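A quick aside before the break. I want you to see a complete sequence-to-structure record at least once, exactly as it would be stored in a machine-readable document. Don't worry about memorizing anything.
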Amino acid sequence: MIRPICKDTIILGKKSVPATRADGLVIADLLDTLKANADRCVGMAANMIGVNKCIITFSIGTITVPMVNPVIVKRADPYETEEGCLSLDGVRKTTRYRSIEVEFLDRDFKKQKKTFTGFPAQIIQHEIDHCNGILI
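That is the input. The structure line, written in tokens, reads:
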């Protein structure tokens, strides 16, 4: 189901709670909502659709990746950039890392550990910040 985008900074500023297998519909809704906003958005966190669960998803081209309870375990090569957000107006400066290693559960709740670089790494960092209640 396509959900409305949450713009309430009080909701967005809360740290997300861990997701469980019972949150499968949230994952589906997040993927549907990202797809519906693909013309203006490359990543989303569950709190952006009003659900306080630690779930993110992002798209690179035609590939869309959901991550459940993602945690960045390694960071390398910081840089300054500007980002926008579907939930916020305008762009803001932030520091990101060119390379990150992330531990997460996939959609089937299987443990994963992967390294991401460049733009995918930037998107993931932005969405994990959402899960931690951090707004750019």
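Two observations worth writing down. The helical segments are 9-12, 24-36, 118-131. The first strand starts at residue 43 and ends at 45. We'll return to this after the break.
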